[in-house]
């Protein structure tokens, strides 16, 4: 190596060493900080009630809402105290920002500071105050410190302000931008500006408090705490827990349930809003003193969001006793319904009929339903006369026909004995569980009907004979999903037989859909290339691809409902679509896109209900009601999933779910939500209605039954959580049920929840 180069490198290293050595004179060694020195209040800015505090060594990070005083007794001794400053003293201090001067609190605590660059070593600013963001001087407005062999200059700036909270409630939380200050009595330093945060305490309604922070001053706020039950009485009903407890039969408890629901539905709408608006705090007006409109708008936005949550809590609080009563009724019903039932029932009619065995009788029409017992092994002849019992029971509770054979008796003789009453006979029906089917309308139970029949017996002259044959149900009972599920679990066959029943309730048929003229939309380049031509599909540069649906009726929660025309996104809202729309909005109204699994064509997730609905509203739409979502997802059908009608039923054809996603390793590209449209759509062209991400709907969730309404049904008036539909990439197959619902707090977000939007049809 060249000698000159070596000399240059040596000189450079020596320069750095000397410079570092010189800088050491401008730093306070740690050993010069003493412990156990008593605080002298006459020399400090600390409040008088802080006297008695002892000095300590600096510890980092510095505590929130705490002021530190570095006091110099002599050139080689420093004391480090912590406490709070007096207002009169704090307003006279000079503030220097650590961040603007590229200093950390740790670094600044050990630096010597000077009033000018001519100061000799050790003649530094004697008394300085620190917090996590500022240095404070009692004397000078300019400070210098030595670093890298040079003096650095610090200019003072407006003092921060102090917020003091005087609260009648001691156990509360103040949350500012996801940071929880807890039950802080003071908060500082705060930059002069509009300060706002959410105040919350157990048993009280949350609200957003705002205050204008003034430089060098203490701003006092006194929270307005409103108890959840303030100035209101919980809703009560005549059905009490004592009445429920003393009810001995299932029918008694059912009567109590019906009375309870009737009283609940008679409540006027006003009972859920009453005095809330007059009691809840109003947002503060700061325009006359504050001109930062963007910050003020954010304050208002948060205020109104918390107000809506408070209103939900207000309404929910009224239902505390109601909900407890409902849960008590349901618990009693569940316990009684699980018990097996064996009862004596007199047939309404008895006759003998000629039937072909191992198949339904050839004379039965095809517009009815039968519940066929597969264990009729004792019937051996190919054609045989059987006995037929028709049961109605009170209010059609036992609306069923049984056909078969009773050992010892032939069908003609048995029919004659019953009809002529020549031989004393008793008939016993056994049900697996005393659980009837509830047929409801508008949330009210209209009738109840048994269907879990498993055995028929006849008693004659003290001897009991077991029948072998079939129980036959009318279609208005057997076609219900609850009954179908039980039939499938019990491996029972359903075939046609409705004309055997007289005076039964005919199933309601949906009305025909109205013909709606198509809406003209501008042709735009789609975000997603969808399979095959779809006349319902509209491609829009703003709303994305969506499907037009005409007005129609369908069975929703075992009830015929009617829907007005609407359009719904063909896919879940994608990250690319979301980001593109947000980029066009005012910065104060933008919603952060925070999906964990990043891809422009993957669905948005980690989004709250509030943000999802706000996005839809920005496009001129909203989140779908549960009825709209379910109608569109089922494509007007009655099935619980899309693959049930396939020749080779396989959920992987339609869904991203646990088996093909969540069970994968986290580094596998198939782990997590996948690109929208990667699976087969329903027949109307909607993708990912099963799995991928579960989807927010507009409706509230409530444990209590409610009036849905037959036209464009919406969720209940009461309830705080929101309904989620469709299941997600984390769910098992059984949770991908299109008719099922989950629910979450509207503030909740997770990597398995997203959404799609609906749009009202334009009127000509």
Could you characterize the architecture of this molecule?
It is a single chain. The chain is an alpha+beta fold. Among the domains are: 23-155, no CATH class; 341-500, no CATH class; 537-760, paralog of FGE (formylglycine-generating enzyme) (Alpha-Beta Complex). Helices cover 20% and strands 24% of the residues. It is built from 14 helices and 36 strands. A 7-stranded antiparallel sheet has the order 16-21-24-25-20-19-17, with helices on one face. Strands 1-3-2-5-6-4 form a 6-stranded mixed sheet. A hairpin with a 2-residue loop joins strand 7 and strand 8 (150-155). The longest helix is centred in the middle third of the chain and has 26 residues, at 293-318.
Q: Tags for this entry?
A:
single chain, 764 residues, seven-stranded antiparallel beta sheet, six-stranded mixed beta sheet
Summarize the structure.
It contains 14 helices and 36 strands.
Task: Give me the secondary-structure topology.
Elements: H1 3-23, E1 33-34, E2 67-74, E3 77-83, H2 87-90, E4 94-97, H3 105-109, E5 127-130, E6 134-137, E7 142-147, E8 150-155, E9 161-165, E10 173-176, E11 179-180, E12 186-190, E13 194-200, E14 207-212, E15 218-221, H4 241-246, H5 250-265, H6 276-279, H7 293-318, H8 320-337, E16 341-344, E17 349-356, E18 370-372, E19 383-391, E20 400-406, H9 411-420, E21 425-431, E22 437-441, E23 444-449, E24 453-460, E25 463-472, H10 475-478, H11 481-489, E26 493-495, E27 537-540, E28 544-549, E29 552-555, E30 560-563, E31 566-569, H12 575-583, H13 609-618, H14 626-634, E32 694-700, E33 722-725, E34 742-744, E35 753-754, E36 758-760
Parallel strand pairs: 1-3, 9-15, 32-35
Antiparallel strand pairs: 2-3, 2-5, 4-6, 5-6, 7-8, 9-12, 10-11, 10-13, 13-14, 16-21, 17-19, 18-26, 19-20, 20-25, 21-24, 22-23, 24-25, 27-28, 28-31, 29-30, 31-36, 32-33, 33-34
């Amino acid at each position: 190596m060249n000698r000159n180069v070596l000399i240059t490198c040596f000189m450079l290293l020596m320069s750095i060493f000397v410079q570092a050595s010189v800088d050491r004179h401008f730093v306070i060694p740690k050993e010069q900080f003493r412990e156990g020195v008593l605080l002298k209040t006459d020399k400090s800015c600390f409040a008088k009630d802080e006297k008695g505090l002892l000095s300590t060594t600096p510890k980092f990070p510095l505590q929130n809402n705490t002021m530190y005083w570095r006091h110099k007794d002599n050139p080689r001794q420093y004391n480090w105290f912590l406490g709070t400053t007096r207002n009169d003293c704090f307003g006279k201090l000079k503030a220097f920002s650590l961040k603007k001067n590229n200093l950390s609190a740790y670094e600044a605590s050990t630096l010597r500071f000077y009033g000018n660059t001519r100061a000799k070593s050790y003649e530094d600013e004697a008394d300085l105050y620190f917090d996590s963001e500022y240095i404070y001087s009692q004397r000078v407005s300019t400070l210098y410190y030595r670093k890298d062999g040079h003096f650095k200059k610090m200019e003072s700036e407006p003092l921060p302000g102090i917020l003091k909270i005087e609260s009648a409630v001691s156990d509360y939380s103040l949350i500012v931008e996801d940071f929880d200050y807890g039950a802080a009595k003071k908060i500082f330093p705060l930059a002069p500006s509009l300060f706002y945060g959410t105040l919350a305490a157990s048993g009280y309604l949350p609200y957003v408090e705002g205050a204008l922070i003034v430089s060098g001053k203490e701003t006092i706020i006194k929270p307005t705490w409103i108890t959840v039950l303030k100035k209101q009485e919980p809703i009560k009903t005549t059905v009490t827990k004592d009445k429920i407890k003393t009810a001995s039969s299932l029918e008694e408890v059912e009567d109590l349930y019906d009375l309870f629901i009737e009283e609940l539905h008679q409540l006027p709408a006003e009972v859920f809003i009453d005095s809330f608006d007059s009691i809840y705090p109003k947002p503060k007006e700061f325009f006359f003193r504050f001109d930062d409109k963007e910050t003020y708008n954010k304050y208002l936005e948060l205020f109104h969001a918390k107000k809506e949550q408070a209103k939900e809590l207000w309404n929910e609080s009224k239902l505390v006793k109601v909900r407890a009563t409902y849960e008590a009724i349901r618990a009693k019903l569940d316990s009684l319904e699980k018990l097996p039932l064996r009862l004596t029932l007199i047939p309404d009619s008895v006759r003998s009929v000629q039937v072909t065995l191992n198949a339904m009788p050839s004379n039965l029409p095809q517009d009815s339903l039968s519940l066929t017992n597969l264990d009729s092994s004792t019937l051996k002849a190919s054609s045989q006369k059987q006995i037929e019992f028709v049961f109605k029971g009170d209010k059609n509770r036992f609306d069923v026909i049984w056909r078969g054979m009773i050992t010892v008796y032939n069908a003609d003789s048995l029919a004659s004995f019953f009809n002529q009453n020549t031989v004393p006979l008793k008939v016993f029906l056994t049900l697996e569980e005393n659980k009837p089917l509830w047929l409801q309308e508008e949330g009210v139970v209209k009738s109840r009907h048994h269907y879990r029949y498993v055995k028929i017996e006849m008693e004659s002259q003290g001897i009991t004979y077991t029948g072998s044959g079939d129980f036959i149900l009318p279609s208005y009972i057997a076609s219900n999903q609850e009954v179908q599920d039980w039939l499938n679990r019990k491996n029972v066959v359903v075939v046609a037989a409705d004309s055997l029943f007289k005076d039964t309730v005919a199933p309601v048929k949906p009305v025909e859909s109205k013909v709606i003229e198509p809406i003209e939309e501008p042709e735009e380049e789609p975000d997603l290339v969808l399979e095959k031509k779809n006349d319902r599909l509209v491609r829009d540069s703003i709303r994305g691809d969506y499907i037009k649906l005409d007005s129609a009726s369908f069975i929703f929660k075992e009830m015929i409902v009617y829907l007005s025309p609407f359009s719904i996104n063909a896919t879940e809202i994608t990250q690319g679509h979301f980001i593109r729309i947000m980029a066009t909005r005012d910065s104060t109204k933008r919603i952060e896109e925070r999906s964990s699994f990043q891809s422009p064509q993957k669905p948005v997730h980690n989004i709250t209900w509030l943000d999802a609905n706000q996005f839809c509203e920005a496009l001129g739409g909203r989140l779908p009601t549960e009825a709209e979502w379910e109608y569109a997802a089922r494509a007007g059908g009655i099935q619980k999933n899309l693959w049930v009608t396939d020749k080779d039923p396989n959920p992987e054809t339609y869904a991203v779910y646990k088996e093909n996603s969540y069970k994968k390793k986290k580094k596998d590209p198939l782990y997590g939500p996948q690109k929208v449209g990667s699976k087969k759509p329903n027949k109307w062209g909607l993708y990912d209605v099963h799995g991928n991400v579960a989807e927010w709907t507009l409706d509230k969730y409530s444990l209590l039954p409610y009036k849905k309404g037959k036209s464009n049904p919406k969720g209940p008036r009461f309830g705080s959580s929101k309904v989620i539909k469709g299941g997600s990439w984390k769910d098992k197959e059984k949770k991908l049920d299109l008719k099922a619902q989950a629910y979450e707090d509207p503030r909740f977000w997770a990597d398995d929840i997203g959404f799609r939007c609906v749009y009202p049809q334009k009127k000509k």
